[in-house]
Specification:
Shape: globular
Helix content: 10-25%
CATH superfamily of the largest domain: 2,3-Dihydroxybiphenyl 1,2-Dioxygenase, domain 1
Organism: Gimesia fumaroli
Strand content: 35-45%
Number of strands: 10
InterPro entries: Glyas_Bleomycin-R_OHBP_Dase, Glyas_Fos-R_dOase_dom, VOC_core
Strand order of the largest sheet: 1-4-3-2
Protein name: Glyoxalase-like domain protein
Number of domains: 2
Domain VOC: 4-134
CATH topology of the largest domain: 2,3-Dihydroxybiphenyl 1,2-Dioxygenase, domain 1
Pfam families: Glyoxalase
Number of helices: 3
Length: 144
């Protein structure tokens, strides 16, 4: 499956904090930057953190939740589909770094089309991220 990289720009409350989270914790290499924005190689995709001073040091971006599989899924959110091994390794890294999960790592839709491993957590600015994995991504990613 050939995928084209996506581009996503979103707001953060602090550029140094975003660098520590996306670059340090998640291991995303940094691309171009300026005083008010920085872009990262987010697993082969370009994400750009833009400073929004209105958020303030203790604030976070607004969020909403929708019920999915018995959980309150934060909206909006973004993330990446990883291999199962990479997903498990990331979950362990997040636990070791005491990242608080919005939805703990688990298998969603067990025994159904689209069965997947998933986890949700927030960046320091309150942006929601979901990382998921499928045993057979080619056939399960868009299964109905």
């Amino acid at each position: 499956m050939q995928l084209d990289p996506f581009h996503l720009a979103f707001q953060v409350r602090d550029i140094a904090e975003a660098r520590a989270f996306y670059g340090g914790l998640l291991g995303c290499s940094e691309g171009r930057s300026d005083e008010t924005w920085v872009d990262f190689n987010f697993f082969g995709h370009q994400v750009v953190c833009h400073l929004n001073p209105a958020i303030g040091p203790e604030g976070s971006v607004a969020a909403h939740v929708n019920p999915v599989d018995g959980h309150g899924v934060p909206v909006p959110h973004f993330g990446v589909v990883l291999t199962m091994d990479r997903w498990q390794a990331l979950a362990e890294t997040l636990r070791e770094n005491e990242i608080q999960f919005v939805i703990e790592p688990y298998i969603r839709f067990k025994g159904q089309p689209g069965e997947q491993a998933t986890m949700f957590f927030l960046d320091p600015s309150g942006n929601a991220l979901e990382f998921k994995a499928f045993r057979d991504v080619e056939n399960q990613l868009f299964a109905t």
